[in-house]
Amino acid sequence: MTRLRVATGIDLPLAPSAGSPILCSDVYGRLRDRVDSTFFCLPPTAEEWDHGFSRIAVCQTPKKPYGAEFSAYVEGLTQEVRRELSNSPYDLIHAQHLGYGLSLAFCRAGSGLPIISIAHGTDVIDSLTCDQAADALREIVESSTAVVVPNEAMREYVVSIAGAQPDGRIVTLPWGIPLEGVGAHAAPRDDGEPLRLLHAGRLEPVKSPVTAVESLAHMASPHTLTIVGGGSELESLMRRAAALRLLDRVTFKPFMSRQELWREFSQHDMFLFTTTGVEAFGLVTVEAQAHGLPVAYGDVDAMGETLGLGGIPYPAGDARALARVVDQLARDSTTRRKVSAIAIENSARFSVDLTSGQLFHLSTQVAQGSF
Q: What percent of the chain lies above the pLDDT cut of 90?
């Protein structure tokens, strides 16, 4: 069977250091027998990473964020992409992110190739506060044969920003994880025994990791918290933990590979997801659920859709409310086990095999002109 020839990529270094490259690696790795993928990226490349792409095209245009130099950055990428597309035959383009420079370059250098653009979340979030990002999103959506979003919340945002009603081009395609790699679950704790809490992700203001730290000060039991990740909030979190005299109950660990993080899941009893702003999907919460961890989450758009009854909402940013959720589950191991079982069942909805299969089906339709 002839494989679909797909040009795709993200204007980031090639490494498993962010959710989007990892998701792409999972998806295209599953499609190796059906898709010949060329992944465009920026240097450096992690030579040791066993990514799922057929080929790598490293762009040399220095990255520039939104601002005065963004247009020149996009033009440089466009020239590089145009050269690559003219040298190799492709059936279609997968433009990852609705607003980043490389996706704009794909749209401008596509030479008539059909485009499927894929929303990842940060792109949509940026477009809510940055006019330049919103303009980029509108151009990419207009240039696309189909637009993929992970859930209905993101669909509504894209429709609102793009300024057009849904016309059949916007397709909801949930993200997924490689469920076959899920490891052991933590041994259940008895009623009243302190819980081992876990927070993992980028330590940025919108993720509000400080809510997790401050919640400890309001808990009736001496639960412990492990925070995994790095970012602009790390130092202030450490200072806040010290000011609250919680350093004996909070452990900070750096960014981990998936394998390391999944081992960390098995050493904890509950996952805290403290985002206070727009959240695209929260894939790490699905990973936590797959390991049997109940997830307490700030009640923001999309998260209820992702987590189902295996998640427990609280008012986003409310540390006291989060503390009450944790204490209640700690006191009631029967409920905790029930929520854990529901979490595992819910996570089974989000297999990367389903994600890749649905994307391949859509790609075939678009490439054949039948979408």
A: 84
Rg for the chain, CA atoms, rounded? 21
What are the strands of the beta sheet with 196-200, ordered from one edge?
250-253, 224-228, 196-200, 270-273, 295-298, 311-314
Cα→Cα distances 278→170, 273, 288, Å:
19, 13, 20
Its pTM stands at 0.91
Task: Return the structure tokens found at 41.
Answer: 């990226």
Statement to judge: residues 200 and 299 lie in one domain: yes
Residues 99, 161, single domain; the answer is yes
Q: How many CB atoms lie within 10 A of CB 339?
A: 23
Tens digit of each residue's pLDDT (9 = 90 or more) over 187-214: 778 888 999 999 999 899 989 999 999 9
Starting at the edge strand that comes first in sequence, how are the strands of the sheet with 146-149 ordered? 55-58, 35-45, 4-14, 92-96, 115-118, 146-149, 170-172
First and final C-alpha spacing in the chain: 21
Same domain, 171 and 210: no
Reply yes or no: is the peptide bond before residue 44 cis, omega within 30 of 0: yes
Is 236 found in the same domain as 199? yes
Model confidence over 6-17: pLDDT tens digits? Answer: 999 999 999 988
Q: Please indicate, yes or no, whether residues 92 and 233 belong to a single structural domain of this protein.
A: no
Q: Which residues pair with 275 in a beta bridge?
A: none
The domain spanning residue 213 has which CATH number? 3.40.50.2000
Cα separation, 298 vs 295, in Å, equals 10
